[in-house]
Amino acid sequence: MQGQAQQQAYDRGITIFSPDGRLYQVEYAREAVKRGTASIGVRTEEGVVLAVDKRIRSPLLEGESVEKLHKADDHVGIASAGHVADARQLIDFARRQSQVNRLRYDEPIGIETLTKEVTDHIQQYTQVGGARPFGVALIVGGVEDGQPRLFETDPSGTPYEWKALAVGADRGEIEDYLEEHYDEGMELADGIALALEALASVNDDGLTAEGIGMATVAVDEQYRELPEDEIRDYLAELELLAEEEEGEEE
């Protein structure tokens, strides 16, 4: 009881550190991210792959209304996990920063620069009273000077660069799968297959094309979201389709 009372004394304000150096509100924001469905990023030699689990919870819900994939600029895609409304605010901020950079310097913004602009913005909400941290993590992927780059933003405002990663639910299990099967020399199609297989590794019932969102940013192309039919073809080829969708195909 004493430990619980001590925690409550320090988790009421975002600007208050606990005696052991923790910001409880930031840790709660990370828990909010874990409650979101999984998003995956994979970096390949030919570009970056983003895949998200949209998990349509009702047949009455329009799948296109589930916003987890976003275009920040022609060369940048962002996937999110956590509170969708928080993600929308950060996506709008990222888009503004991309536009400002093009107007100011007449060139596309760097992926690392954009990520750090976003994380600097996130960090402000960890030290200002009267506001809460953003309960969302982003995967920022794109091409910078011909090189694919892949970053993660944390609710604390810390950026991390990855070769492949997952955020949201089942992160540990998905990253274990990615660590085992990732190959730095893979092509873009291999990255798409790896992302789908990693999602399927934590979905025992298989995947549906409607419940998956995918986008790529290739070295020689712009941001592109894969249409549902193309995703279904990949799932069928990899034998990852859910049984009910296999029946529909037949």
Mean pLDDT: 91
Give the overall shape, derived from the CA principal axes.
Answer: globular
Named CATH architecture: 4-Layer Sandwich
Number of helices: 8
CATH topology: Glutamine Phosphoribosylpyrophosphate, subunit 1, domain 1
C-alpha termini separation: 59 Å
SSE pattern: HHEEEEHHEEEEHHEEHH
SS elements, strand count: 10
The structural class is alpha+beta
CATH class: Alpha Beta
Rg over C-alpha atoms, rounded to the nearest angstrom: 19 Å
Task: Provide the number of structural domains.
Answer: 1
The fraction of residues in strands falls at 15-25%
Major β-sheet annotation:
5 strands, antiparallel
Low-confidence stretches: none
Helix content: 25-40%
CATH superfamily: Aminohydrolase, N-terminal nucleophile (Ntn) domain
Instruction: Walk across the major sheet and give the strand order.
Output: 8-1-2-9-10
Oligomer: single chain
What's the short story on this structure?
The chain has 250 residues and is an alpha+beta fold. It is built from eight helices and ten strands. The chain has one domain: Glutamine Phosphoribosylpyrophosphate, subunit 1, domain 1 (4-Layer Sandwich), CATH 3.60.20.10.
Description:
The chain is globular, with a radius of gyration of 19 Å. The chain has eight helices and ten strands. A hairpin with a 4-residue loop joins strand 9 and strand 10. It is an alpha+beta fold and 250 residues long. The chain has a five-stranded antiparallel beta sheet. Strands 3-4-5-6-7 form a five-stranded antiparallel beta sheet. The chain has helices at 2-10, 24-35, 84-105, 111-124, 171-181, 188-200, 228-237, 243-249, and strands at residues 39-43, 47-53, 69-73, 76-82, 136-144, 147-153, 159-161, 164-167, 212-218, 223-225. The protein has a single domain, classed as Aminohydrolase, N-terminal nucleophile (Ntn) domain (Glutamine Phosphoribosylpyrophosphate, subunit 1, domain 1, 4-Layer Sandwich).
